[in-house]
Amino acid sequence: MQIQISLNTHAVNAGDIRVQLDAELHALEQSGVKITTNKRETEAGALGVFEAYQFIIEHGRDIVEALPLITAALQISNTVLKRRGLSRKPKPRKKKGAHGANTTAPQPLIVFNVNGNSIELPADDAQLKRYVGTIGKSPAKRTPSSRARKSGTKKSAQSKHKARQ
Fold first, then answer.
1. Are 9 and 49 in contact (CB under 8 A)?
2. Residue 115: other Cβ atoms inside 10 A
3. Cis, bond preceding 122 (omega within 30 deg of 0)
4. In angstroms, how far apart are the furthest CA atoms of the chain?
5. What is the per-residue DSSP string for 94-120?
6. Is 6 in contact with 21 (CB distance < 8 Å)?
7. Tell me, what DSSP letter sits at residue 143?
């Protein structure tokens, strides 16, 4: 399982934010958790910019066992931004400018990504809670016992249907 935290290199105070994130995220390092950092091009459209400084957290376990690590990394990333007084501005509606150009929403400072599920930071507490809930409900969470319970329910519904006939 991999967590990707991409910092927009063109953001205000990006260098200071990177130093703080680097220190605080590396404090999460332990046996089975590897953290690497690099500066590279982002995936198309991820930040709306070409370069990002990325922190990649490798964790050998499944998502359910990694939820505390995911939550900690997410909260650290969001808190570093909030300490600097940076908050997410609401996205303005697209308007035609004086020269016919569309205005766009501000670029996110950080994009936090776990297995294809991403959130733009800074975010409020309700958004963070929803995001962690979404990660926790991913298909990788299913265990053999939960599948057995689901199939057991299906069988009982089928047997009730046969009994009616």
1. yes
2. 15
3. yes
4. 71
5. P-B-TTSPBP-PPPPSEEEEETTEEEE
6. no
7. -
C-alpha distances (whole Å) from 59 to each of 4, 9, 114, 141 are 11, 25, 11, 15
Which residue type sits at 65? E
Q: Tell me the pLDDT tens digit for each residue of 106-165.
A: 667 899 999 889 999 999 999 999 999 998 785 544 444 444 444 444 445 555 555 555
What would the pLDDT profile of 43-94 be if each residue is shown by its tens digit?
Answer: 545 555 557 888 999 988 788 888 999 999 999 999 999 888 877 655 555 5
Cα 142 from Cα 64, distance rounded (Å): 9
The encoded tokens of residue 19 equal 């130093």
pTM score, whole prediction: 0.68
Q: Percent helix, strand and coil across the chain, each rounded to 5?
A: 40, 25, 35
